[in-house]
């Protein structure tokens, strides 16, 4: 079949079969411009089934980020049974998440740890970063995430 004019904007290969404890596989990650030229966002989809410390250390990004916590059963994503600890700002202000929640993190704001302390029913977790590359600044170092099967690297 001939290549279509806009084929570079259609991505079907964003599945990752990562073996993480308490995270269902497959997962999906879209890593912005490393996968679609000109794309200005990154997004991950994970279903978490049990407790885990997802992010151990505070970090920040050069662009806005959104964290979305939903129940995983359609059609009622508001059926939520979990206790999650999340921290925002240099002062590490604590937030307990125990219902469907969206968190907006302005660019440059320090955030995390993110600890899924208890999960009664699976959680559908989305992280959306409004940047062409997924980068984070942590402990004075910058890390870049490029796509399925690729590990984080420092530029």
Summarize the structure.
The protein has 155 residues and is mainly beta. The protein has no helices and twelve strands.
Kindly list the characteristics that best describe this protein:
12 strands, globular, 6-stranded antiparallel sheet
Describe this structure in words.
By secondary structure, the protein is mostly beta strands. The chain has a single domain, classed as Jelly Rolls (Sandwich). It is 0% helix and 43% strand. It contains no helices and twelve strands. It has strands at residues 15-16, 27-30, 42-48, 52-55, 65-71, 82-88, 93-97, 101-105, 111-119, 123-129, 134-138, 141-145. The strands form three sheets. A six-stranded antiparallel beta sheet has the order 1-2-3-10-5-8, with no helix packed on it. A four-stranded antiparallel beta sheet has the order 4-9-6-7, with no helix packed on it. The radius of gyration is 16 Å and the shape is globular. The mean pLDDT is 88.
């Amino acid at each position: 079949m001939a290549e279509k004019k806009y084929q570079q904007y259609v991505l079907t290969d964003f599945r990752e079969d990562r073996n993480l404890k308490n995270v269902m596989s497959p997962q999906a990650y879209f890593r912005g411009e490393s996968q679609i030229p000109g794309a200005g966002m990154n997004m991950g989809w994970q279903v978490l089934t049990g407790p885990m410390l997802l992010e151990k250390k505070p970090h920040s990004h050069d662009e806005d980020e959104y964290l979305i916590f939903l129940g995983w059963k359609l059609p009622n994503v508001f059926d939520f049974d979990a206790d999650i600890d999340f921290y925002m700002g240099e002062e590490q202000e604590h937030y307990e998440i125990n219902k469907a929640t969206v968190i907006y993190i302005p660019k440059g704001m320090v955030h995390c740890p993110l600890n899924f302390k208890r999960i009664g029913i699976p959680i559908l977790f989305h992280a959306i970063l409004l940047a062409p590359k997924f980068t984070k600044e942590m402990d004075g170092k910058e890390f870049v995430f490029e796509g399925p099967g690729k590990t984080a690297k420092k530029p």
